[in-house]
């Protein structure tokens, strides 16, 4: 048992360039193949991984998942906006993902970058927090979404799904259908959409690549993104806590669960705030890690 413990605590060393090349090859295969539902998961996770490996050299395991989900949405959104402006959506966006990943791979290989990943007390607390929240997320999704009945496939929408989720689905689907930025309010003809929708364009890439529609694609990948939100909040709480690693993990777990109870809508169903919140949490965590959390920076990020 002692030897197993030592080996378990030893960090895993990865060559960032090799990992990025593998991601690039997978993205290339995705770009040249027809739409498939599995792509909604792959595009929600893979595009940000090469960029994640450039953020820092030492990572707890769950932080890799947290940062990758946030950066994947950012990269998907940038690629989608560029493709929409050039009239090349969605295939153009997929090609842009391949190019960006290839450039990161070349840079990582050139400098010989290595990343060290370790499972630590931080990860145990993050997984415990996610395990507490996950059953509530699953219960919410099971009681909503598609289901097969005698009359065919029906889509059930209760509570928040009838309002916020429907608006999210509509903006994403509008981008897919019109191959343009969703400038029109989907529920009021002729009225402009004043909702910032850059992130929705990134989700539209996942939807278009899946070959399905937004309500089905985002319903499938939603729980995965919610877990990224929970873990991002956990690490933000961990960075703000003091004491020993076990004390900080306990305080972070309690703080994250308290936040989930205070704003369950951020973690239980697909809506704009819940899916984009990990980006803000990761930025705040990064600023804390870099010791750049000034009042001015915090105010700017909170406004964003």
% residues in beta strands: 5-15%
Q: What structural class do helix, strand and pairing data support?
A: mainly alpha
**Biggest sheet, open or closed, and with what strands and sense?**
3 strands, mixed
User: How many helices?
Assistant: 13
Query: How many DSSP-defined strands?
Result: 5
Note poorly predicted spans: 1-8, 295-304
Q: Kindly, what is the distance between the CA atoms of the first and last residues, rounded to a whole number of angstroms?
A: 49 Å
Average pLDDT: 86
Shape: globular
Helix share bin: 55-70%
Order of the strands making up the biggest sheet: 1-3-2
Q: Write the element-wise H/E pattern from the N-terminal end onward.
A: HEHHHEHHEHEEHHHHHH
The total domain count is: 1
Please state the CA-atom Rg, rounded to the nearest Å: 20 Å
């Amino acid at each position: 048992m002692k030897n197993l413990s030592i080996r378990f605590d030893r960090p895993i060393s990865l060559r960032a360039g090799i990992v990025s090349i593998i991601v690039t090859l997978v993205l290339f295969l995705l770009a040249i193949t027809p739409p498939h539902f599995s792509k909604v998961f792959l595009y929600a996770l893979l595009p940000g991984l090469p960029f994640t490996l450039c953020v820092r050299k030492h990572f707890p395991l769950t932080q890799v998942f947290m940062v990758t989900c946030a950066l994947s949405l950012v990269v998907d959104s940038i690629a989608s906006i560029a493709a929409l402006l050039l009239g090349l959506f969605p295939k153009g966006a997929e090609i842009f993902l391949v190019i960006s990943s290839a450039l990161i791979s070349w840079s990582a290989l050139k400098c010989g970058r290595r990343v060290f990943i370790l499972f630590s007390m931080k990860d145990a607390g993050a997984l415990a927090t996610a395990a507490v929240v996950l059953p509530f997320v699953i219960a919410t999704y099971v009681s909503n979404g598609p289901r097969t009945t005698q009359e065919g496939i029906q889509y059930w929408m209760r509570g928040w799904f009838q309002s916020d989720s429907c608006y999210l689905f509509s903006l994403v689907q509008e981008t897919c259908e019109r191959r343009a930025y969703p400038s029109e309010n989907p529920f009021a003809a002729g009225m402009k959409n004043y909702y910032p929708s850059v992130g929705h364009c990134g989700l539209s890439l996942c939807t278009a690549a899946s070959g399905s529609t937004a309500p089905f694609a985002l319903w499938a990948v939603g729980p995965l993104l919610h877990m990224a939100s929970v873990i991002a909040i956990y690490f933000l709480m961990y960075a703000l806590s003091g004491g020993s690693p076990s004390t900080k993990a306990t305080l972070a777990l309690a703080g994250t669960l308290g936040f989930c109870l205070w704003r369950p809508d951020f973690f239980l169903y697909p809506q704009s705030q819940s899916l984009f919140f990990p980006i803000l949490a990761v930025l705040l965590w990064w600023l804390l890690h870099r010791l750049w959390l000034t009042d001015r920076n915090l105010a700017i990020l909170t406004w964003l």
